[in-house]
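RECORD TYPE: protein structure
NAME: phosphatidylinositol-3,5-bisphosphate 3-phosphatase
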Amino acid sequence: MSATTPAVSTTPLTAWWNNMTLSGIYPSISTTSTTPSTASSSWSSHFIFGGNPSTAANTPQSTVPPSALSSGYTEDITVAGSLLKDKITGLMDTLMGRESVHAGCGYGEDGRIAMMVDKVYLVDRLGSHENLVGTVHVTTTHIIFRAENGSKELWLATGLIASVERGTLTAAGCQLVIRCKHFQVITLLLSRDKSCQDLYETLQRAAKPVSVNVSELLAFENREPVDDARGWKRLDWPAEMARQGVLASQNPKWTQSGINEGFTICDTYPDKLWFPTAASTSVLLGSCKFRSRGRLPVLTYFHRQTEAALCRCAQPLTGFSARCVEDEKLMELVGKANPNSENLLLVDTRPRVNAMVNKVQGKGFEDERNYSNMRFHFFDIENIHVMRASQARLLDAVTKCRDVAEYWKTLESSGWLKHLRAVVECSLFLAESISRGTSCVVHCSDGWDRTSQVVAMCQLLLDPYYRTIHGFQILIEKDWLGFGHKFDDRCGHVGALNDEAGKEISPIFSQWLDCVWQIMQQKPRAFQFNERYLIEIHEHVYSCQFGTFVGNCDKDRRDLNLSKRTKSLWTFMDARHDDYMNPFYSPTAHVALLDLDTRAARFSVWTGMYNRFDGGLQPRERLEDLTMTAMEHVGVLESHVAQLRTRLAELKSQQQQLSTSATTPTNMIDSGMSSATDELKNLSISHPLDPLLNTSTSSSSTSRLLERATSQESGVMDSSLYYPDEALTRYSLKWQPLRGADRCSNPTCRGEFSSTIERRIHCHLCGMIFCRRCLKSTPDERERVCDKCKSD
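PREDICTED:
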């Protein structure tokens, strides 16, 4: 207690105040009756308040028994009393010049803690694990569940909350179901209806904030200095175009234009754009005015082998009869930029009916009669509203259905696999056309949803570079972030002002990642990355922990100064590069993936994504992880064998030096040096690991040799000959199996692995499994060791 405590205790107002208390003053107080010691522990949690535990433990507690409180007090009077006490507490703390112990326990005005509720049950909906009782903490950025026995600690970023559902009150209590954007389902059971309602309202505010200020996202909560130039400069537009071969020829048909510098003509396009060299500025400006949102046809991929181009744009503002000479000229120049074929294929990814409806709004699609050498093709990929409803039905199938018949019926009615098939078929059609030498122009309505899906997928099929870890990031930066997919709107990063804004949410990017996974199932050797890589990207698209996917376009990200205020996801993933490696990857196995099987039977539900946190439905061991672990273990042992061989060569070299030395006194040889030299000469080790395999013979022989070589009697004290037996048993020959490894092996950590997707990492010395926090790399970064092995 501070030095002012005696003065405070003698004040009549303070004495009255210390005896004044009301049950439920803060939402963070337990709703059940507690003993004074229990209440003290609830208030003094260092985890909650971040203050001094000893100071918090001395917080004055009530001396009034619960029976002394009048039963006639209504809940409104209790709330009013709580508010009055809050005000008086703040006033007294201000007057006495001390910091309030309970500062930050309100709803976010002065602190980070919004709510705390104890005696909450975490229910396993599948029944594969026992229910846990613990405490729920709601902060401005996270929801945290801590089990009372310390067996589980669950953290969830508030940005990942998709919806909160409240069940009816039953004899067991009231149930809350939290559905997350990365498809985790958390079920909480509370015994008191009032507590459930308070927690429900708090979670609703956390999931759907009233504010629409992007700067309040978790990415901006970073308190560390941001120096992440490598991550924020992942895409270099001129370098990427040069890699594709745009500037390879003597007379390039495509050139960079500065027409959109400063985002002057189209704020949802990047500031660097490539057009046919023959296109004049007037042609570009005329086409820009004729396209929705000013998104005129621009180059996104150049196929080096056939010199065919893949361009993207938005729908034209044709209405029923409008046309634009400049737009028709630009389309003609796109076709002529291909020296092998002037024919141009224009693909509209929408159903024809949808495109006809847009004509009523003054938009629509191109008239083939007005464009020379152009063929038109529709693909029936549905709009964002259909995709949102489809995924909702899919989630009902994977989380709510209780029998197989109901599951298949709900899955069929969702149409999700049918939509995946439509995206893959359209992408394959584009890839085949470009590989045959025909340039293609693609659009949907505004050119940032379905267009991004099929254009990016087409490049993934054609170019093996985009199937690497680094190339996949370049592809996302270019065709999703650069060309203006509206991540803020589609992912619901900020609160919606009205229902119309809420209808902008749609799983377009999630669907594309699902399509990538479907192709990986058919061509597992064609991708450098594994399933974990896709899932990690998907989670951080919604978590807003990094600034990479914040904003609707490059202009938004530049206006928000994200490169100086937030960290890049790519830098975070670079540090975990080995987590995403596919052990079956073969760079030369596939070039273009044009032999895909698009039959309906080849598309399946991605359980690794949608049932990621359902341990009872996931395999206990993943083939990719087993293979990578075996390869890593073999690599560690081979490295150890190489060290032993190096040491053996040193010993043999020293043996030769000793045997050829002419200055060795005779009495030293007689005193035992000769026998040591003879044993060095006669000792034969066929393999560096033989001492480990035959300890009864070679270990004893080696130990006797080293004894004599370093003994005082021999007169030789060469420390370089000393090779302790511990060095031979330094590396574990048997590693802890992945199956059943649910927790970190560090006794002071015991962190839980939330799912089988989460990486289990072995210590290279003891072979036990640890979380990433408990392993450190050696200075040469060749080994990962735990704290215990490092100290030993």
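COMMENT: The two ends are 42 Å apart (CA to CA).
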